[in-house]
Amino acid sequence: MRPGGHVLVIGLAATGRAVVRRLAREGYDLVVVEEHPGAPDYARARQEAEILGVRVVDAPPAEMLAELAVTARLVVPSPGVHDTHVALRAAIQAGVEIRSEVDLAGERARVPIVGVTGTNGKTTVTTLIAAMLQESGVAAAAAGNIGRPLLDAVDDDVAVLVAELSSFQLRFAPTLAPRVSVLLNLADDHLDWHGSRGAYEDAKANIFRHQRSTDLLVLNADDDRVASIAANARARRIGFSLTSTPGAFRVDAGVLVASDGRALIRLEELPARAPHDVANALAAAAAALDLGGTVDGVAAALRSFARLHHRVELVGQASGVRYYDDSKATNPHATLTAVSGFDSVVLIAGGRNKGLDLGVLRVLAPRLRAVVAMGEATAEVEAAFGGRTHVVRASSMREAVRRAAEVARAGDAVLLSPACASFDWYTSYAERGDDFSREVAALLGDNAGERVG
Fold first, then answer.
1. For 380, phi and psi rounded to 5 degrees?
2. For residues 321 and 450, is the Cβ–Cβ distance under 8 A?
């Protein structure tokens, strides 16, 4: 960090507010720019910042942004602020350091951090690791992309911090070195933002890039892309695998087994046993056991763990048809994983594509009774399945649910697993999932006694 000068914070949502609170307390001279000051709680956030002596600039012109960046000692962008942003371009050209909130948090943390990333499964595994540690008597808190900024959590009275880390947060993390890092899987995602597969993978690699030889990297031994980018990692490595791979956390004769051969839990005891559920359980166990977790604590957390909201969540059933909300599936890899857990599916897919190839979904055709295509990506969904399975269009969530119900048969799953972002019709995947649940409830109507909510 340059001596003197101000710290430029870009964005005053949850991340920016956490940065302001922390760095103002530490005595830094702060300038915050907010390019979209119309959010409902923005006036309060601005007031809080100004009370702390922070200068807040609303919707500055490009020239001012560039000047604020080149005269800064440090720039801290909110997640999702793109490399091409005028302030970041100016900072890079001028040699001004750029660091994310999670990078600042890693520097200030007083306890070990477990960093969890991957294309899919991050929230589940982050939650599981924290639960396993807590069940083992180790005080732990979950933070990061899961909801609470990591910088707010570093003063918590806990023994371990478990952080979900997105590629956006990891993009500017030049010093972050988790005590344990977990790399779950890699598939194309956010290519519209990162620009290329290589740039996306390079951001993900920051989760282990700065680890020491005494740290641990937990990685998916069944994922070639993970193995490729982690080949030169300095940390100790432990794999997890759905096969009986020696030396990995694995499944052996129907039992989840640690790398040293200790039995953890019988497969039949898991509340959810789809392949991705098992992989998540193994990854979480590997991380938890390295930081004081016990076999009993791991097993207890797994027995009581339910799938999270909007993640293949059963929201209703009638006439032998079950309705599942998997709105969190915002990329094809997540949808491939979700559909693989069912024998016969009516898939509701579409939304705003993130520059990804939806054609990879066509391999699902043998499991699909039909596809309901919706949102901006309707034509791309149709093209993915054209000639392979029946595809119908829907212009609203209500129509999508009703068209799906019309073609579903007893034993089918109607699955909202969009493979796309929600921002064409909704402000978040959660809002999309809630709308799906409401429409399912409205459809079931007189069958309310059969509903599951």
1. -70, -35
2. no
Place of tokens 């009986």: 244
Q: Does pLDDT of 194 surpass 60?
A: no
- Would you state the torsion angle of the CA atoms of residues 231, 123, 300, 236, taken in this order, to the nearest 10 degrees? 20
Residues 206, 168: Cα–Cα separation, whole Å: 11
Q: How many CB atoms lie within 10 A of CB 47?
A: 11
Length of the chain counted residue by residue? 453
- Taking the C-alpha atoms of residue 115 and residue 149, their distance in angstroms, rounded to an integer, is 13
Reference 118, options 331, 363, 377, 290; nearest CA is 331
Phi and psi at residue 249, in whole multiples of 5°?
A: -70, 125
The helix (H) or strand (E) run that includes residue 88 is helix 86-94
Distance CA 291, CA 208 (A): 17
**Strands 72-77 and 250-252, sheet pairing:** unpaired
- Give the other-Cβ count within 10 Å of 449's Cβ: 7
- H or E segment to which residue 245 belongs: none
> Pairing relation of β-strands 255-257 and 250-252?
antiparallel
pLDDT of residue 1: 57
Go through the domains of the chain in sequence order and give each one's CATH number: 6-98 (3.40.50.720), 103-304 (3.40.1190.10), 313-450 (3.90.190.20)
CB-CB neighbours of 97 under 10 Å: 17
Residue 116 contacts residue 161 (beta carbons within 8 Å): no
Alpha-carbon distances of 258 from 155, 237, 254, 289, 330, rounded to whole Å: 32, 14, 13, 9, 31
Q: Would you state the structure tokens that stand for residue 178, as one six-digit string?
A: 């988790």
User: In this predicted model, what pLDDT tens digit does every residue of 4-45 receive, in sequence order?
Assistant: 689 999 999 999 999 999 999 999 999 999 998 988 889 999
Strand pairing category for 72-77 and 97-98:
parallel
The closest alpha carbon to 14, from 152, 161, 170, 155, belongs to 152
> For 78-92, 164-178, 435-449, which range has the lowest pLDDT when averaged over its residues?
435-449
253-275 pLDDT per residue, tens = 999 999 999 999 999 999 988 88
Q: Tokens 């520059």 appear where?
A: 355
Question: CA nearest 118: which of 214, 222, 215, 18?
Answer: 222
Task: Using alpha carbons, list the distances in angstroms from residue 9 to 68, 88, 110, 437.
Answer: 10, 11, 24, 38
Q: Which helix (H) or strand (E) holds 33?
A: strand 30-34
Q: What is the pLDDT of residue 247?
A: 93
Q: Over the stretch 310-367, which tens digit does the pLDDT of each residue have?
A: 888 899 999 999 999 999 899 898 899 889 889 999 999 999 998 888 999 999 999 9
Measured between alpha carbons, how far is 152 from 144 in angstroms, rounded to an integer? 9
